[in-house]
Task: structure prediction
Amino acid sequence: MVNTPAVSTTNGYAVVALTLGILGWTLIPFLGSIGAIIFGHIARGQIRRQPQDGDGLALAGLILGWISVGLWLIGVICFILFFGGLAALAAMNA
Result:
């Protein structure tokens, strides 16, 4: 009898989450990050239900996605506050 090792498969959505997380920082800034968050959550759910590899990949995609989205939100808030302040100053001086 030959003992064959169990083949462990990596979750495909985990790979997609990490790829989109990296693309969210480079080529597809906001949409890649949103995709990384969505696919990361899907992958982690599947990994919990079925024993597969790739939890670290999914977690890395989630972290990259959430940090990028957080920085985008901070940037938009700063943009609005800056130009809102300029408009308020312009209105006061008029």
Remarks:
- The longest helix spans residues 55-93.
- The two ends are 91 Å apart (CA to CA).
- Residues 57 and 75 are 27 Å apart (CA to CA).
